[in-house]
Write a structure and sequence with these properties.
The complex is a heterotrimer of chains A (74), B (169) and C (283).
Chain A lengths: L2 H13 L1 H20 L4 H32 L2
Helix pairs in contact in A: 1-3, 2-3
Chain B lengths: L1 H7 L3 H135 L4 H18 L1
Chain C lengths: L9 E5 L2 E4 H22 L8 H20 L7 H19 L7 E3 L2 H6 L28 E3 L8 H23 L1 H5 L5 H33 L1 H6 L5 H41 L10
Antiparallel strand pairs in C: 1-2, 3-4
Helix pairs in contact in C: 1-3, 2-3, 2-9, 3-9, 5-7, 5-9, 7-9
Classes of the chains: A mainly alpha (74), B mainly alpha (169), C mainly alpha (283).
Chain lengths: 74, 169, 283
């Protein structure tokens, strides 16, 4: 098997671990905050989506690296 | 770097083309879509604000009206109370006058009754004493006439008459 | 097998301008947006209904967000944020429409058929690249999708990111003054942060949309991938399409969320640099 395929798989696989944990924490904390202060639910949701977007972009970088590895090996 | 750009398909011409197409979209939207949108939203906000202002004005007027009504009610109640107090006062005065008059009349009556009683007592006493005198004289005369001879009897009659006289007086 | 290309494919050349499939789709979505905007804007009704009420809802959403971030001063940035949102969301949703990515122009009929493409009509002739065009996109493909989601092209997303950053800093300079604006960059690391924002803006959007398209392609051809056989394409295509339906829903959601995130990030980065009239608390 081509090593670059392995590299691509590892890049996205390992790169998704951190953001996965991070998004889980963000979502859980947002729900906690929502339970504590339901009246500011809109703001919490907005902040949660922003936080998730930041965490997710790291996974997306890993994905882009994976695709670069995939498309440059040819 | 150039190789990376190439492998990612980044092309300055396309970049600029996309920027221009975004700019065109922005210009068209801010020429055609956003002005009526903003105007309409502003109008709606103004209308809502006006409704709220109207409501507030109506509420103040209602409150004012309520207050006026309450004040007039209070005034009427006060008037009534005052009138009642006046009436009571005048009634009290009348009563006191009447009572005083009645008492005066009664006092006069009592006084006249007392004098009359006194007069009657005096006259009665005089009558009784005159009557007693007359009775005693007649008795004395009779006794003197009938039993003048018996000195002991005379003596007893005399003492009896004296005691009777004493009693009558 | 599947042909996944991270860069947009060239359909032809207009002069020296390489017309890529992503560019074509992006123009289509811009055109759609412009037509809808003009139709809604010209027939603007006092009592909103249908599309107009949705647009008003979106506008008010961004307005409240801008007011949260920058107070009443933030209202002037609502059109910008909303244009970003609409541009991105229309483009993303157009990328999910069936036919985008699956409708191909065939250049090499033999290879294309062996890859499972059903020929329909005459094979297109690959336009000759003019000698002046640079060599970024010259690769011979057996077949090329005619349409590709506009944001599945780094050129689009990076262009949007650069526009956003330029506007953010221009507004910072205009409202706070050049000296005050440069005071943000006493630490040279801040400059790196601002430059990396372009990359995160661009790559986040590109990565999400492109990953979505790859996901849809893989799911649509899951049967072919798993069996490794090119059986009669039509029934397999139907099965693949059925498998892809939930992922199409997911991509519709992701497309809207990414557009929202882009617009929201523009607003919140603006609030970092823009000096509002009321207070100097933002810095």
């Amino acid at each position: 098997m081509d090593l670059s395929i392995l590299g691509m798989a590892l890049a996205i696989g390992l790169g998704a671990i951190g953001p996965g944990i991070g998004i889980g924490i963000i979502g859980g904390k947002a729900v906690e905050a929502l339970g504590r202060n339901p009246e500011v639910g809109g703001q919490i949701r907005t902040l949660m989506i922003l936080g998730i977007a930041f965490a997710e972009s790291i996974a997306i970088f890993a994905l882009v690296i994976a695709f670069i590895a995939f498309s440059t090996h040819k | 770097m150039a190789q990376l750009f190439q492998s990612l398909g980044i092309n300055p011409i396309l970049l600029v083309a996309q920027a221009i197409s975004f700019g065109v979209v922005y210009l068209v939207l801010s020429r055609f879509l956003f002005p009526p949108l903003q105007k309409s939203l502003q109008e709606r906000r103004d209308a809502v604000a006006k409704t709220f202002a109207d409501q507030a004005a109506i509420e103040t007027r209602l409150k004012q009206f309520d207050e006026e009504q309450r004040a007039s009610q209070k005034k009427a109640a006060e008037d009534v109370q005052k009138m009642m107090i006046d009436a009571r006062a005048s009634a009290d005065a009348t009563k006191a006058e009447l009572v005083a008059k009645a008492r005066e009349a009664a006092d006069a009556e009592v006084a006249s009754a007392k004098t009359r009683i006194q007069q009657e007592t005096v006259s009665a006493e005089a009558e009784v004493s005159a009557h007693a005198k007359a009775v005693a004289q007649s008795i004395v005369k009779e006794l003197l006439a009938e039993k003048a001879g018996d000195p002991a009897w005379q003596q007893s009659q005399i003492s009896a008459g004296i005691s009777a006289l004493k009693q009558a007086s | 097998m599947l042909e996944i290309s991270i860069k947009p494919e060239v359909l032809g050349y207009i002069g020296a301008f390489p017309l890529t499939n992503a560019q074509l789709t992006s123009w289509l979505s811009s055109l759609l947006l412009i037509v809808v905007a003009i139709v809604v804007g010209v027939n603007y009704k006092k009592l909103p209904s249908g599309l107009q009420s949705i647009i008003e809802m979106v506008y008010e959403f961004f307005q409240s967000m801008a007011e949260d971030a920058m107070g009443a001063f933030g209202r002037r940035f609502v059109p910008l944020a909303m244009t970003f949102f609409l541009f991105i969301v229309v483009s993303n949703w157009l990328g999910v429409v069936p036919g985008v990515g699956s409708l191909v122009s065939i250049h090499d009929p033999a290879k294309a058929v062996s890859a499972g493409i059903i020929p329909f009509g005459a094979p297109a002739v690959m336009a000759e690249a003019p000698p002046s065009a640079d060599a970024t996109v010259e690769e011979q493909h057996a077949y090329v999708p005619v349409f590709r989601g506009g944001n599945a092209d780094l050129n689009t997303t990076l262009a949007l990111a650069i526009i956003a950053q330029v506007i953010i800093h221009a507004m910072g300079i205009r409202t706070a003054g050049l000296a005050h604006h440069l005071a943000h960059f006493k630490n040279p690391l801040e400059i790196v942060t601002e430059l990396s924002k372009i990359l995160t803006f661009g790559f986040r959007l590109f990565g999400n949309v492109f990953a979505g398209e790859v996901l849809l392609t893989v799911m649509g051809s899951l049967v072919v991938v798993l069996t490794g056989k090119l059986a009669p394409a039509l029934p397999f295509g139907l099965v693949g399409g059925a498998i892809a339906i939930p992922f199409v829903m997911l991509e519709l959601f992701v497309g809207a969320i990414q557009a929202l995130v882009f617009a929201m990030l523009v607003l919140s980065f603006l609030s970092l640099f823009v000096k509002t009239d009321q207070s100097a608390s933002h810095h």
